[in-house]
Amino acid sequence: MNDYLIFMHDDTETPVDVATPAWEDYFAMLRASGRFCGGSSIGPGICVHRSGQAKPVTPHLSGYIRVQAESIDDAKKLLIGNPVLNAGGTVEIRELPRD
């Protein structure tokens, strides 16, 4: 199994509140799959660079979920029922390589 991060973007037409039955159902499905490894909303922050000239934070990320899957296509299957995707928003899947 590989580890993946699923990033939710904040580009839905209407805000997606995390305290909804849709999220509860989605997380219940992920937990039942046995492949859910955690996640969280993402709040404000800063970027830091040694030179003091850091770029701004990536503003469109609103949350993440960590999952285990055989492949990126397998991780994509775990998006069924994702409230951000269902609301027309963007969801990004990134592999966490074992370096």
Automatic annotation (TrEMBL):
Source species, domain of life: Bacteria
Q: Which Gene3D superfamilies match?
A: Dimeric alpha+beta barrel
Q: What is this protein called?
A: YCII-related domain-containing protein
What lineage does UniProt assign to this protein's organism?
Bacteria, Pseudomonadati, Pseudomonadota, Betaproteobacteria, Burkholderiales
